[in-house]
Amino acid sequence: MLTNSRLAYHTHDHKRCINAALQRAKVLCDEKHARLTPIRETVLKTIWASHQPLGAYEIVDNMTPKAQTGKRIQAPTVYRAIEFLLEQGLIHRIASLNAYIGCPFPGNNHKDFFLICRACGSTAECSNEQINSMMLQTAERTGFKMESQMVEISGLCPECQQGGQP
Amino acid sequence: MLTNSRLAYHTHDHKRCINAALQRAKVLCDEKHARLTPIRETVLKTIWASHQPLGAYEIVDNMTPKAQTGKRIQAPTVYRAIEFLLEQGLIHRIASLNAYIGCPFPGNNHKDFFLICRACGSTAECSNEQINSMMLQTAERTGFKMESQMVEISGLCPECQQGGQP
DNA sequence: TATGAAATGTTATAATATAACAAAATTAAC
DNA sequence: GTTAATTTTGTTATATTATAACATTTCATA
User: Fold this and answer.
1) Per-residue pLDDT of chain A (166 residues; tens, 9 = 90+)
2) In chain B, which residues have their Cβ closer than 8 Å to the Cβ of A6?
3) Which of A29, A118, B33, B119 fits as disulfide partner to B165, beta carbons 3.0 to 4.6 Å?
4) CA geometry: angle at B42 spanning B37 and B44, to 5°?
């Protein structure tokens, strides 16, 4: 099992997360000759500002205006960056929240699932090949040809259990 | 494993599906002293008109106008009925599609997953206790207290594989 | 540096969902 | 049974999420 739950749920040097994510993104985009433009990079950085999924308009709000003109970045621009980052596997969409989160393992060809804390919103990504193959098997047994999956688990992260969340 | 995939993906007497669903709904609501009003029943029937998840505004469009006044049912009314039906476990929300589908096994206290055909939209519901317990275990291993899950699998149903979908 | 392709800017609008309050219907209390 | 309280529905407006359409700019490269 692969997971970033330790980072997602506990205090840590988050700047390193961000820097590592940006570094990985640069390398991956370079390899694929995909253009990680300043706007795309800023959107990625904004998403990586926390381990909580961010809605598209939260990203819009958190983006700093253009240095030259002082104008705010508009929704379509952000959505286009999101689309790019999704295609490159650098972020994931959390459907149950209409929100986006950075992928800690981009490039890995894994099918992952998400552990979303309903109290603090922090979200970890896990992969478990055994579960994946069981889902594939179960689908197959009904004659269904599985192509992709979306697994979102809601509950309480370790920190919020301590905090006495109901 | 429990599933309605045979009904979801193959031609059958669908009126029986609908009638059975309405019957179960009535019994369950009766037991819980929940009021299955005419509007709520109509929304449920509209959702059960197919085995494909229906968007809220598709439901609005498919609802017949009020018999007395001839006026169309408005979105908030439909959303309130949806909310009620979700609470009673009579329908499910498919987050990846922003759409709603009838539950073939209401009352069962199961955690299910959905097999969504990307070609025809038909969607089956499956439960597999083994997968559930593995997810629970995996979450636990990271200290996460799992409370609910959302598993949506996309692919091709048996019929659409035959049809030569790419 | 001209040229085409890709990315971004800009405005408008589609699609999904809910807030707020009024009216009607139903249930409970007397 | 009639009244009061509660729940449901009607109605209007608006919030939120997402995309269409076209103009402009930037970038790669020929």
Assistant:
1) 899 999 999 999 999 999 999 999 999 999 999 999 999 999 999 999 999 999 999 999 999 888 777 889 999 999 999 999 999 999 999 999 999 999 999 988 789 999 999 999 999 999 999 999 999 999 999 999 999 999 999 999 999 998 766 6
2) 142
3) B119
4) 95
Q: What's the rounded Cα separation, in Å, for the pair B78 and B64?
A: 12
Among A141, A149, A111, A95, which Cα is nearest to B9's? A141
Closest by Cβ to A138, choosing from B128, B146, B154: B128
Q: Which of B151, B92, B157, B152 is nearest to B120 (CA)?
A: B157
Question: Is the Cβ pair B95, A1 closer than 8 Å?
Answer: no
Q: For helices A75-87 and A38-47, what crossing angle results, to 10°?
A: 80
Per-residue DSSP letter, B34: -
Confidence grade of residue B3 (pLDDT, cut at 50, 70, 90) = very high
Query: For residue B73, which nucleotide's C1' is closest to its Cα?
Result: D10
Residue B27, C-beta contacts closer than 8 angstroms, at least 6 positions apart: none
Average pLDDT value over all residues in chain B: 95
Chain A residues touching residue B148 (CB < 8 angstroms):
153-155
Q: Which residues share a beta bridge with A114?
A: A125, A152
- Point out the residue among B130, B135, B158 whose CB comes nearest to the CB of A143: B158
Task: Name the residue in chain B with its Cα closest to that of A151.
Answer: B151
Structure tokens at B64: 């017949």
Positions in chain D where some atom is under 7 Å from a protein CB? 7-13, 16-21, 27-28
Task: Give the nucleotide with minimal C1' distance to the Cα of A76.
Answer: D19
Residue B21, CB-side half-sphere exposure with 13 Å CA sphere: 27
